[in-house]
């Protein structure tokens, strides 16, 4: 079995543990967290693992094959460096470091060593996006011309969490920046962003960006955690439209079921399957396959994918500051939203109560 250590036992660390425990290919050897409450929970949920508050024992243990990095972004550069120096394979949350410069340094480090590295750009591992791309590749919609992506939820409120990853267009939006690039199979050429400072918060918490790729495909990406935080019954708006010269592909979901419409020149297919969540099961399967065969799985997201998406999300976010950036609402409403979320037990993107290392 592949021995794995989890560093950071907040929300994502717990997701990884659940998937590792379901797999017959992994053994969780260590869980590390600096927070005593997180370590206590780790003891309870993973009695088979050694729970520690320092990473050095993990790196010195030659039996550990893989480290999974789920602590805050500011710690990832040093943890990636230590892991690769110790000969470990690495699964990291995004972004892979706290600054663009540090991210590209980690890309160069990873690409210059013989260990397998990957990052949880989970949309690339979803059944629905892979099904859509196969349909596009078959020629059924003609040439792909327009990519439209929208993801708005009542998710993290400003100041609530993930501040080390920046405003939500970087923290969450970089997934969609990466997804558009993956569909286009091209690099970004132009971008223009319009933001909104909801509740008069200092940073835009909603952004729409549109532009072109180098191959001529156009895109628009809309992302924000602004979608009805105080609604009695909360909902969200998430979809992808791929528009070709002859047909279209459309996907939407309710976080439980994904609905896909494929409308080509010879075939119409409508499919519904379970959404799949963060798709961590597929990510760790790809890592296990790579380790056991000695050949990197081509579908496994790379550090370079993450760095490009992070850099472009920052550029788009910064572009929004150079246009008119209106502010609507007030900080009192924002504080009411935060208070509501502190007391919610069922909602969008709620953080664990002990959220220091989420």
Q: Layout of SSEs?
A:
Blueprint: E1 2-7, H1 11-22, E2 26-32, H2 36-45, E3 50-52, H3 56-60, E4 66-69, H4 76-85, E5 89-92, H5 100-111, E6 117-119, H6 127-137, E7 144-152, H7 168-171, H8 173-184, E8 188-198, E9 206-213, E10 218-224, E11 237-244, E12 248-253, E13 257-263, E14 268-274, H9 280-293, H10 303-321, E15 327-328, H11 331-343
Parallel strand pairs: 1-2, 1-4, 2-3, 4-5, 5-6, 7-10, 8-15
Antiparallel strand pairs: 7-11, 8-9, 9-10, 11-12, 12-13, 13-14
Helix pairs in contact: 4-5, 5-10, 8-10
Given the structure, what is the number of helices?
Answer: 11
Major sheet details: 9 strands, mixed
Order of helices and strands: EHEHEHEHEHEHEHHEEEEEEEHHEH
Beta strand %? 25-35%
Overall average residue pLDDT = 95
Q: pLDDT below 50 for ≥5 consecutive residues: which ranges?
A: none
Radius of gyration: 20 Å
What does this 3D model show about the protein?
It is built from eleven helices and 15 strands. Strands 14-13-12-11-7-10-9-8-15 form a nine-stranded mixed sheet, covered by helices on one side. The longest helix is centred in the C-terminal third of the chain and has 19 residues, at 303-321. 34% of the residues lie in helices and 26% in strands. It is globular, with a radius of gyration of 20 Å. Helix 5 (100-111) runs antiparallel to helix 10. It is of the alpha/beta class.
């Amino acid at each position: 079995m592949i021995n794995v250590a989890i560093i950071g036992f907040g929300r994502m660390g717990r997701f990884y543990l659940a998937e590792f425990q379901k797999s017959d290919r992994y053994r969780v050897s260590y869980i590390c967290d600096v927070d005593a409450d997180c370590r206590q929970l780790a003891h309870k949920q993973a009695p088979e693992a050694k729970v520690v508050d320092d990473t050095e024992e993990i790196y010195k243990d030659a039996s550990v094959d893989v480290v999974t990095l789920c602590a805050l972004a500011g710690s990832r550069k040093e943890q990636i460096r230590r892991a690769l120096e110790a000969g470990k394979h690495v699964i990291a949350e995004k972004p892979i470091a706290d600054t663009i410069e540090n991210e590209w340094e980690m890309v160069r480090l990873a690409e210059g060593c013989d260990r397998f590295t990957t990052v949880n750009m989970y949309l690339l591992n979803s059944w629905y996006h892979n099904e859509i791309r196969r349909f596009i590749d078959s020629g059924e919609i003609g040439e792909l011309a327009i990519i439209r992506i929208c993801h708005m939820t009542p998710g993290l409120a400003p100041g609530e969490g993930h501040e080390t990853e920046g405003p939500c267009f970087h923290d969450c939006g970089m997934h969609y920046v990466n997804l558009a690039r993956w569909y286009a199979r091209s690099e970004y050429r132009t971008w223009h962003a319009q933001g909104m400072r909801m509740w008069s918060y200092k940073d835009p918490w909603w952004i729409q960006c549109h532009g072109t790729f180098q191959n001529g495909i156009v895109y628009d990406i809309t992302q924000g955690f602004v979608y009805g935080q105080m609604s009695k019954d909360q909902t969200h708006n998430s979809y992808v439209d791929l528009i070709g010269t002859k047909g279209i592909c459309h996907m939407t979901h309710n976080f439980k079921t994904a609905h896909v419409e494929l409308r080509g020149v010879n075939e119409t297919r409508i499919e519904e399957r379970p959404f799949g969540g963060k798709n961590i099961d597929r990510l760790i399967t790809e890592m296990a396959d790579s380790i056991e065969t000695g050949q990197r799985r081509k579908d496994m997201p790379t550090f370079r994918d993450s760095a490009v998406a992070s850099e472009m999300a920052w550029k788009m976010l910064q572009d929004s500051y150079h246009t008119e950036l209106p502010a609507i609402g007030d900080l009192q409403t924002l504080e009411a939203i935060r208070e509501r979320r502190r007391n919610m037990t069922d909602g969008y993107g709620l953080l664990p109560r002990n959220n220091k290392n989420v």
